[in-house]
Design brief:
The complex is a heterodimer of chains A (485) and B (343). Chain A has helices at 4-43, 46-80, 82-116, 123-152, 171-175, 178-209, 216-251, 253-260, 293-299, 309-327, 332-335, 344-371, 382-407, 430-461; strands at residues 157-160, 165-168, 266-267, 271-275, 286-290, 305-306, 412-414, 418-419. Chain A is mainly alpha-helical and 485 residues long. In chain A, α1 (4-43) runs antiparallel to α2 (46-80) and α4 packs across α6. The radius of gyration of chain A is 24 Å and the shape is globular. Chain A starts with a helix and ends in a 24-residue tail after the last helix. The mean pLDDT of chain A is 93. Chain B has a two-stranded antiparallel ribbon with strand order 1-2. Chain B has a single domain (3-335), classed as Formate dehydrogenase/DMSO reductase fold (Up-down Bundle). The longest helix of chain B is centred in the middle third of the chain and has 32 residues, at 194-225. In chain B, α1 packs across α11 (253-275). The model of chain B has no long low-confidence stretch (mean pLDDT 95). Chain B starts with a helix and ends in a 17-residue tail after the last helix. With 343 residues, chain B is an all-alpha fold. The chains are: A mainly alpha (485), B mainly alpha (343). Chains A and B meet through α2, α3, β2 and α14 of A and α3, α4, α5, α6 and α12 of B.
């Protein structure tokens, strides 16, 4: 059966990773669809209208799942992690409430306007409603990442012995947490990478299929827009990721040590690209090593010293004891753990898979730009595989990045303040957590199949032929709507 | 209890009221799909269903955010309430989530394939979800007011079946019935042709059934935990429901819809006035009830949240009003375009 802690953790992992398949697609694609729509309004070139409609439809198929799985996320904190919610709700709840009030309303309302707005509202406002939807998704990312950053690097709080919980002391500090300031660009730019990659992959597949038709220039344009978005965003992802590595080394050194399976504190520490074996500290298992690179990633200097897991184990224990002594007997059990080491192979491999998938996306985007220059259509058969792989790669890079950052924090739930084991709901039985786990997993699996098949059907269908929306303007009261459910 | 705690108790009541007023009608429309969506033949049936779904199309997603905001605001303003409530109502909330998931997917996906089996399955998801969600939300809210067994640490000490007590089930049925009536009045207001007439006829019947259920629920609750003010709102809720039914029979569809909106809001007000000064009373002797005072956040969090609410709520209300204004036109079967979908 496992403990309810284990099941609740698996459930959080499954539902969150699943939810985050759709989130970056939503953030990234809404921007590109808004761009196509704006270009249509500005130029009235049919290809922009068709691209808006086509990618808009794909966007909506994806958005539906992102939305419904997001509701589960907000409820889950209270359902499975009530002791966590109790202890940090004073700080953690506020960004969630802000997210609902500032972001969800904006996003949902204006997406409704966009979906049903065809022929019913002025076209500038219509294109604007997709931009507002996009702004909503970005704001949403800001607040939820502020909440997550508090878990990585708790700031702006004080412990109140009277209420026995952490309370807000500085909301601005929570919103401008240094982890947050670098995580936000990293995550949003990664989402643009995904959005660009989906557009590029889909359009590339259609460009090759319809190379001989009049639609080729339109799809070629979409390939290039998607590839440019992905490529430019990926440069930002690398820069923000680099800064993130240094901040992580500073505030969560254990995570960086686990990312390299570095057991002993080392100066000019190497970074292993690949390795074999158990990652238990034996250096012989590394296959390709770049000297000094880990030191550079962590400290900005190839000669820098990176602390190893063995030393950090001791210092994390000291940290816990210090926190327990400072805050008293209420907090002591929250910070106690047998071992403060995360699961090293998980941290090691997700870190590399994240970067590997990200770099491949960059490579494919650059290749696609090169191969479509001067009206060329990529002919070789393997381009079909690239078209299929490109949308998935950055999505998985996002997943690996999140698994790394969350698993690398373990056993902490809030770093230095509360372990994951102490956050779980005491009144919820393991049977109940199992029931919800099975229900979500089966439901999510079924929905994934339905959504993917539907998505692919619409891809195969391609962009609809152009029908000038001005020709069925609302002259007749009883004329059919341009869009209805 | 300081003023901000009270303000947030009131605001959370307001969010729940907003939720039941707004998503209430789209629950009703979804649940009435098999009844009011029944036409003279298969083609008419399909068109009627599409008319019904199109009336709520631009709105249901925004309406649902009221629930998310109620949840988020409870988390921020009353973390203990959020923690206890969401872990206590574990299985009902799971069912609410499943209901919302399948019905939302139904709205978005139903028209995406031109295939009768596909549509029939999503119709079942929309109908099932639209019945189950208000029913269970009603059960959960009634349990909050009625009280549940909480131990000395305010942890839930009951099980799933504790929640299925007669009063709460009645509360669930009342919320469902009110949503159906509210949905029927919404359709009467937003459609044209035979759906409009059918919705009006059905609205009266549903309204009378709702009145019966609501009176029993509110009286029961009133005698159990009521205050002077909760009796006032009970009377206003009952009066506005009767006025709504009357307006409906006289063909005043706008007033009928406003009437059930007021009823829903006043029903929530009654719940919150009956709840005051608790937020989640314990039915166990020796149990620790959660109160506005002991469940709330720190003054700083409440202050920040208050500023956010003061600045942003009017903006949200403004653009929400804009969407209702934009999509104000009545829709009839003649407005339904050919399905544009893959097969």
């Amino acid at each position: 059966m496992g403990s309810s802690l284990d099941v609740a953790r698996w459930q959080f992992a499954i539902t969150t990773v699943y939810h985050f398949f759709f989130v970056p697609v939503t953030i990234g694609m809404s921007a590109v669809v808004a761009y196509f729509h704006t270009q249509w309004v500005r130029t009235h070139k049919p290809e922009y209208y068709r691209l808006t409609k086509f990618f808009g439809k794909l966007f909506l198929i994806n958005f539906a799942l992102g939305l419904v799985t997001g509701i589960v996320q907000e409820f889950q904190f209270g359902m499975n992690w009530s002791d966590y919610s109790r202890f940090v709700g004073d700080i953690f709840g506020a960004p969630l409430a802000f997210e609902a009030l500032l972001a969800f309303f904006l996003e949902s309302t204006f997406l409704g306007v966009w979906i049903f707005g065809w022929g019913r509202i002025p076209e500038k406002l219509h294109a604007g409603s997709m931009w507002l939807t996009h702004i909503g998704t970005v704001l949403s990312a800001y607040f939820i990442l502020a909440a997550n950053s508090f878990m990585q690097n708790p700031v702006g709080f004080k412990f109140n012995p009277e209420t026995g919980r952490a309370e807000m002391s500085d909301f601005l500090a929570v919103l401008t947490n240094k982890v947050q300031l670098v995580t936000f660009p990293h995550v949003v730019l990664s989402a643009y990478m995904v959005g660009g990659a989906v557009i590029m992959g889909v359009a590339l597949w259609l460009l090759r299929r319809d190379a001989a038709t009049g639609d080729a220039p339109m799809y070629r344009k979409a390939v290039r827009v998607g590839a440019v978005v992905s490529l430019v965003a990926s440069l930002g992802v690398i820069i923000s990721g680099d800064v993130q590595g240094k901040i992580m080394t500073e505030v969560q050194p254990m995570k960086m040590a686990a990312a390299e399976a570095l057991y002993d504190t080392t100066s000019s520490a190497p970074f292993s690209v690949l390795s074999v074996g158990p990652l238990d500290g034996s250096r012989a298992s590394r296959i390709i090593e770049v000297p000094g690179l880990l030191s550079f990633l962590g400290t900005g200097s190839f000669d820098g010293t990176v602390e190893g897991i063995n030393d950090l184990k001791v210092s994390e224990r000291e940290l816990a004891q210090k926190v327990a002594a400072q805050y008293g007997p209420d907090v002591a059990p929250l910070v106690a753990a047998d071992d403060y080491t995360p699961i090293v192979p998980v941290a090691y491999w997700t870190f590399r898979l994240m970067m590997g998938a990200g770099f491949l996306t960059m490579l494919f985007a650059a290749m696609a730009l090169w191969a479509t220059r001067k009206n060329a259509v990529p002919q070789a058969k393997w381009w079909g595989l690239i078209a299929i792989a490109t949308p998935f790669l950055p999505v998985f890079a996002n997943s690996f990045g999140w698994i790394f950052t969350e698993m690398g924090r373990q056993p902490w739930l809030v770093y230095g303040l509360m372990t994951t084991a102490t956050g779980v709901s005491p009144s919820v039985s393991v049977g109940e957590v199992w029931v919800s786990m099975v229900v979500y997993t089966l439901l999510y699996a079924a929905l994934a199949v339905v959504e993917l098949k539907l998505f692919l059907s619409y891809v195969r269908r391609g962009a609809e032929p152009f029908v000038d929306p001005a020709t069925h303007a609302d002259v007749d009261e009883d004329a059919p709507l341009q869009f209805a459910y | 209890m300081d003023a901000l705690q009270l303000v947030w108790f009131g605001l959370i009541g307001l969010l729940w009221a907003g939720y039941l007023v707004l998503e209430g009608f789209d629950f009703g429309v979804g649940a009435l799909l098999p009844v009011l969506g029944k036409g003279t033949d298969a083609e008419d049936t399909e068109k009627r269903r599409r008319v019904m779904l199109t009336t709520i199309g631009p709105h249901w997603d925004g309406n649902e955010v009221w629930l998310l905001t109620a949840g988020g605001a409870t988390f921020a303003a009353f973390p203990e309430w959020y923690a206890t409530m969401f872990s206590a109502f574990y299985l009902p909330l799971l069912l609410v989530l499943v209901a919302l998931i399948v019905r939302n997917m139904g709205f978005e996906y139903r028209g995406k394939r031109d295939d009768a089996t596909w549509r029939a399955r999503w119709d079942a998801a929309i109908i099932g979800g639209s019945v189950l969600a208000p029913l269970l939300v009603g059960v959960a809210l009634t349990n909050v007011v009625r009280g549940v067994p909480l131990d000395a640490k305010s942890e839930y000490a009951g099980n799933f079946f504790t929640l299925l007590n007669p009063l709460s089930l009645l509360g669930g049925l009342t919320v469902l019935a009110l949503s159906l009536t509210h949905g029927a009045f919404f359709l009467a207001l937003k459609t044209s042709g035979t759906i409009r007439e059918d919705a009006r006829r059905m609205g009266t019947t549903l309204g009378l059934a709702t009145a019966g259920l609501a009176v029993v629920t509110l009286l029961w609750l009133g005698f159990a935990t009521g205050s002077v003010w909760s009796w006032v709102t009970t009377v206003v809720a009952a009066g506005s429901l009767l006025a709504a039914i009357f307006a409906n029979t006289r063909g005043r569809e706008g007033w009928a819809f406003i009437g059930t909106a007021v009823t829903a809001a006043m029903a929530v007000a009654t719940y919150f006035l009956a709840l005051y000064p608790d937020v989640m009373p314990s039915t166990l002797s020796g149990g620790r009830s959660l109160t506005i005072e002991n469940a709330s956040s720190s003054p700083m969090t409440l202050t920040i949240m208050t500023w956010a609410a003061v600045v942003f709520t009017p903006i949200v209300l403004l653009y929400t009003a804009y969407t209702y204004y934009t999509f104000r036109k009545r829709i009839g079967t003649q407005h339904i375009p050919e399905p544009v979908a893959v097969s």
